[in-house]
Each structure stands twice: as C-alpha cells, then as structure tokens.
Amino acid sequence: MYGAEGVDFDRGAETDIELLERHGYDKLPICIAKTANSLSDDAKAPGRPRNYKITVRGAKVSAGAGFVVIYAGDIMTMPGLPKVPAAVKIGMKPDGEIYGLF
Questions:
Q1: Which of 99, 4, 79, 80 is nearest to 49 (CA)?
Q2: DSSP secondary structure string for all residues of 8-64
Q3: What is the pLDDT of residues 56-89, one digit of tens each?
Q4: How far apart are the first and last CA of the chain?
C-alpha cells in the first residue's frame, strides 16, 4: 500500500507481533505510525519514494481504541507527561468549586 519493495522487521517488532498474535489482537485494524513527510519511514525521502524497504521497529495494542499501532522507523510518538502532570494541581473545594484548571 505504501509502495515499499518489502519490510524489515527489527527483532523487537517480531517479538511484539508474536505477542499480539498470541493474545488474539492480530485481527484488529492497523494504524502505522510513520513520518508525516513521506510514505516511507524516512523523513528525508518526501512524498512517495521508490525502491525502498520500510522498517518496522515495534507494535503496540491500543485496545481501548480497537487497533494495533505499528511503529515505522524512528518515529516519535506524542511526548509523555512531565514529572508532575497538570492534573495533580486540579481539585475541588468542599463547596464544589473546582480549582487548578487553566
């Protein structure tokens, strides 16, 4: 679908996929996390490059959303929470007034 000549699976990706299959998640739809700049996993190869293999480095189940995420290349996903998330400062006073929202 992406025009790649093939797929290279990192050992971690193979392990992830074997685990997903073992637990029955292999029939879920797949979302591929890759660079937005290219149909490949290489941000320096814009558009629809030719003559390439896509590298899969991992896979994860998003069970609540109902799909599997395949991580292609060195994609960075959304950053995690800081050491102290903003939610820690949110609360409610005894009178029902909420504080800490921004």
A1: 4
A2: EE-HHHHHHHHHHHHTT-TTS-EEEE--TTBSSS-TTS-BS-SS-EEEEEEEEEETT
A3: 999 999 988 899 999 998 887 776 667 787 888 8
A4: 43
Q: In the numeric block, which tokens belong to residue 55?
A: 């590298």
7 DSSP 8-state letter: E
User: What residue has token string 């149909």?
Assistant: 39
Cα(67)–Cα(30) distance, integer angstroms: 6
C-alpha closest to that of 20 among 56, 74, 46, 47: 56
* Mean pLDDT (whole number) for 18-42: 91
**What stretch of H or E contains 83?**
none
